[in-house]
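Q: What structure does this chain adopt?
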Amino acid sequence: MQRPTTRLRSLLKRKGLLYAPVTYDPLGGKLVERLGFQCVYVGGFATGGSLATTEPLLTMDEQVRVAAAVANAVKLPLLADGGAGFGEPLHTMRTVREFIHAGVAGIHIEDQFYPKRAHYHKYVAHAIPIKDFVSKIGMACQQRDRSDKDFLIIARSDTCRFFGLGEAVKRVNRAADAGADLGMLFPRNHKEAIEAPKKSKIPLVYVVSRGNRDGRPLYSLRQLEEMGYKVAIDAILTIGLNFHFLRNALLEIKKTGDYTGMTQAEFVRARQDLEDTIGLEEYYAIEEKTVEKKTWGKR
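A:
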């Protein structure tokens, strides 16, 4: 069986856009896989939110642990948020090694300060000098080459938001010279979104940031492919939807004493689909051949 890293490299060699929905737990990963997607993503915002904290407060161990749990549950290649490498170049090398050992196929590493600050969510500029970013990416690539040459290093720059597309592209291109496989930046408008893939030395990842508050454009997967992007990460989708619908359901129960958003028949179907997703029938089969054999006999 191919390693996840090798499978991801093979997918990227194909024509077209690779889409990676976000998850923050193994069940979400299993659902992504069951629905036929080819890649899954464990994002920092989603992990932080699921732990009732914020991404800048996550430790490497917390993010690696979530990514490892998802990777262990699926056969899909998994991309993960590697933050700012969780430190300086030396720490970043260990970060790469730990994600590889966790079964992850690739991570993105950004040019923000470390420790990160919660004000990142208010779009306050916290970018390290370009030479420090390139050094960090270079060390990450060295660790990749030592541990698994197919592991993907994505160089992420957040400077487009504050200093313009030119600065962000310059950083991604310098990171490409240091060995980065893909780039990630955050175009502020439609013009920049079109120009970015044309100016970058390496293929780009587009982050579909549903719920962003700075006006960054959202596109369909077809539009992103036509614009020249290679990967699309849906960074907020699942945690945003889960929170929204759960909140509304709980509010209805609090106000009315009942939930009417789904019928009993719909809940039965949803529960069956969930059980099918986690493979409950396979567990039944094992028990019926062993500890439940007297009860059920042969299948």
